[in-house]
Amino acid sequence: MNPLGKVPMLLDIDGTCVWESNAIMRYVCHKYGDGSMYPEAPVERARVDTALDYRLSKIYPVVAQTAHPVLGWSWLAEDADADAEKIGRRKLGDIFEVVKDSLLAGRPFIGGDQPSIADFAVAPVFQMLDITDILVPPHIEEYEERFYDAVPFAKICGEGGEGADESKVGITDLIAQMMMKAGLEATQKQRTGRQRYGARKIAVPNGVEVPPRAQRVAPMPPPSATLFLTRMSVNCHGPWAVLRQLQERSGGSLDGYQYVLKDIDLAKGETRSPEFVGMTRSHSVPALLDTDGTVVWESHAIMRYLVACRAPDAYVCAPEECNNVFPRDAASHAKVEMALDWKAGTLHPAVARFSYPRLGFGLDEGTRSDALARISHQLQVLTDHLLGEDRFIGGGPYPTIADISIVTCLRLLDIDESFEVPKKVAEYEHRVRNMVPYLDKIASGDGGFVGFGLDELIRLKKEGTGGYEWDDGMMVNKNDVMDEA
Q1: φ, ψ for residue 459 (rounded to 5)?
Q2: Are residues 134 and 258 located together in one domain of the fold?
């Protein structure tokens, strides 16, 4: 049922099987919800989607890097980095600020006045830090307490679940047990809606210096939507392709909706400028500044938002009379969501560990052999489970945003000529690119800054004649595998 062999997994009463945590929550809301936990309005939904994707790509991996070694769990299984905990601690400072300034932004919950599925995904993650000596900022603790006050049954989940016997240990009990095993005094502090163990003593500094609030420049709504991107980043290619395809589909006008591309040079730290940080505290590309001032970041959140706003009833790559970029039936919709989350949380990290060292974007070369085996397995997941007998994700006649995102990621495999892409995967890539021909132009950079895109960078690296040069002051970006999401 689940080719990844992971939990959670939902088997619905009609036989529909959904895996990936965020995809399950979206599926349940799509099929059974009333819109209160996953809003229908594009701007409000984009805020929830951004938080869900940020939790998947940044919050959980960093918290896991920090807490799992203490809990005795190796992070990323056999290729766990000895410095993972140290790196995770450095990144936590930025994450705490992003949650406060961008995800909450003065609201009690990410969803507004009431918890959304994004709050269910984000708030409980920080409980894993109870096992560490990290000082969680007051605004994070207050947010967690508001969540557990509003959703008291969530505390039961942390204790192993309702009606759990002593063999079913929740994270709360696990933390206490691990501290006692380590010879630490597990001082139980009762707080509203939850329990904490021990004292936190170490404050986590931000990974890099960020302008104080007074120096941040709030964005002004532009006459045209602006997509901030780095043209060689595959995570930027998906939103760029959706904008281009929507424009092509509408005869170039997009009903008066115009967009411009703003090139961001990661190596020069341009995502850390006051202007960029004022727009999105996550300091990552891609980011979209819409004409009404709405800011959306995280690649998949941007793609969902654009489709919801500009083509809610159309395949991105189809003639205008066709419908359903997200298939209307809940099962097909869930497959698209599963594929998006699988790409962000599983496929892209594996491909990055294989290709980024060759491209000069950090990561240890020693991880590539393990990444090769992982990529081969994930490509089989793609062909055997996500696609099956279908031409595209979701079973429709045209590519969806999941297909666009997956195929742009697979382009990174071109860096190593020794890796032979399986025939079924190559045929799938060809089908998508045939339907979305602009993807090839995007990979070339289409006249981007410094004169090249991903394809040119790959060519230069293969020839050993040059590539992307990093400023000495931005080594933290290089080692963090670029500011892209």
Answers
A1: -60, -45
A2: no
The residue count for the chain? 485
Question: Is residue 272 domain-resident?
Answer: yes
From 310, 338, 370, the end of a domain falls on: 310
Asked if residue 17 is part of any domain, the answer here is no
Q: Is residue 358 located within the same domain as residue 274?
A: no
pLDDT at residue 177, as a whole number: 53
| CATH code of the domain covering residue 451 | 1.20.1050.10
The distance from CA 120 to its chain's CA centroid, rounded to whole angstroms, is 16
Q: Are residues 174 and 65 in the same domain?
A: yes
In a domain, 240, yes or no: yes
Question: Measuring CA to CA, how many Å separate 268 from each of 362, 466, 472, 473?
Answer: 16, 17, 9, 8
Q: What is the total count of domains within the chain?
A: 3
Domain annotation covers residue 28: no
Instruction: State the Cα–Cα distance between residues 322 and 420, nearest whole angstrom.
Output: 35
Do 91 and 232 belong to one domain?
no
**Which CATH number covers residue 248?**
3.40.30.10
Q: Are residues 47 and 120 in the same domain?
A: yes
For residue 434, give its domain range.
330-479
Which pLDDT score is estimated for 478? Answer: 39
AA identity, residue 363: L
Identify the pLDDT of residue 217: 53
What secondary structure, in 3-state letters, does the chain show? Answer: CCCCCCCCEEECCCCCEEECHHHHHHHHHHHHCCCCCCCCCHHHHHHHHHHHHHHHHHHHHHHHHHHHHHHCCCCCHHHCCCCHHHHHHHHHHHHHHHHHHHHHCCCCECCECCCCHHHHHHHHHHHHHHHCCEECCHHHHHHHHHHHHHCCHHHHHHCCCCCCCCCCCCHHHHHHHHHHHCCCCCCEEEECCEEEECCCCEECCCCCCCCCHHHCCCCCCCCCEEEEECCCCHHHHHHHHHHHHHHHHCCCCHHHCCEEEEECCHHHCHHHCHHHHHHCCCCCECEEECCCCCEEECHHHHHHHHHHHHCCCCCCCCCCCCCCCCCCCHHHHHHHHHHHHHHHHHHHHHHHHHHHHHHCCCCCHHHHHHHHHHHHHHHHHHHHHHHCCCCCCCCCCCCCHHHHHHHHHHHHHHHCCCCCCCHHHHHHHHHHHHHCCHHHHHHCCCCCHHHCCHHHHHHHHHHCCCCCCCCHHHHHHHHCCCCEC
Low-confidence stretches of the chain (pLDDT < 70) are: 74-85, 154-222, 249-257, 311-328, 361-368, 446-453, 458, 460-485
- In this prediction the pTM is 0.81
pLDDT single digits (tens) 291-305? 888 999 999 999 999
